[in-house]
Amino acid sequence: RYVKAANFGAVTKEANNVLTDGVTSNAVLEHDAYVYDDEGKQINQVILKAGSEVTTGETKTIDGRQFTAIAKGKYVASDNI
Fold first, then answer.
1. What is the per-residue DSSP string for 24-65?
2. Backbone φ, ψ for residue 65 (5° rounding)
């Protein structure tokens, strides 16, 4: 017995973009991004330009906002990646 492939709709799954601790990934910033410390405070108005490639690590929620690690103790808002 067979079923025509055309009878099936396309299935799409969204990826979970949250990385497990100790795992890194390369990403490109979609927007200009301020760099924050591990308390959610901007670091000396450092801005990474849109299109910059960064190595991302774990995500962290600070005061209800989600941040992604780009270096030890340095984060960007997850919305920018």
1. -EEEE-SS-EEEE-TTS-EEEEEEEPTT-EEEE--EEEETTE
2. -105, 145
Strands 53-56 and 42-48: unpaired
* Spatial separation of the C-alpha atoms in residues 54 and 67, rounded to whole Å: 14
Q: pTM here?
A: 0.67
Residue 71 structure tokens: 């270096």
Tokens of 79: 């919305």
pLDDT in tens, 37-70: 989 999 988 899 999 888 888 889 988 999 999 8
d(CA 38, CA 57): 13
- Is 30 in contact with 50 (CB distance < 8 Å)? yes
In the structure encoding, which two tokens stand for residue 75, read together? 């984060």
